[in-house]
């Protein structure tokens, strides 16, 4: 019953509060009509006092608890308080655990970041060291390549100089051996000697390679094919050596004279140009002796080889053939036939 009355008074107090707010806005709605003045002040005074009275009545109408209920209430409050303390403790513990977990996670992340940073720094240091090492190796390789190139260039220059010196030495060595007359001058003087010796023939020089030349003999327009004459020049243009061959297989080209007599007269004319004193020697007798030694006079040598090397094989000349080699006395030059061509071999 007391509980019902308390609830009723509480409900009325709530209504009075509502009426109070309405009276503050429109007092006419909540004040009795018989009141002469309907003001907010009157509404506040009326419903304010009514509200306080209802609240006081509510407090007095509340049912009183028995000692058992008080104990139960206190126990319940204590349980609530203990539960609240436990809940707070658990909450705090959970927050601490969460904070510890967050801190551990943060420390883990920091360690990972530190490890990652250390790894990156280490990789960067390794890359820089590798790049530096590569750069040093490239510099060393370039230096070695430059050194090698310089050495090769120096060696090449040295080889070129040696080759040049060797060539110059060879030229100088070859130039030591000379008949001391140039090709054109020799041919001009030879033609005069041929005319002086009443030989109806004329000599003409023909270039043969870089250093060689051939001399052909003509009677008018007819060539004496039975005589093969070739020579070799030095760098200064002087003649180093010549050979004259009487080819027995071409005797038909000698129509006016016997081939041996004509060849002897021709060689006498050649020697008159080179050494007039040697021309007075008995060349016919020397040529007829196939085993005779070379004739040497005033540094000039005339050889009469009885055989010749043909492609590396020595072959004797035909009985009617004559071979006549004119050169400096100390010159080791000789003549061979290679691939069908006459060549001078040092």
List the helices and strands and how they pair.
Elements: H1 2-25, H2 27-30, H3 40-61, H4 67-176, H5 183-196, E1 202-208, E2 212-219, E3 222-223, E4 227-233, E5 239-246, H6 259-274, H7 276-279, H8 283-288, E6 295-297, E7 300-303, E8 307-310, E9 313-316, E10 322-328, E11 334-338, E12 341-345
Helix pairs in contact: 1-3, 5-6
Description:
Among the domains are: 63 residues, no CATH class; 163 residues, no CATH class. Helix content is 58%, strand content 18%. It is built from 8 helices and 12 strands. A hairpin with a 2-residue loop joins strand 11 and strand 12. Helix 5 crosses helix 6. The longest helix is centred in the middle third of the chain and has 110 residues. It is rod-shaped and about 190 Å long.
Question: How would you concisely characterize the structure shown here?
Answer:
By secondary structure, the protein is an alpha+beta fold.
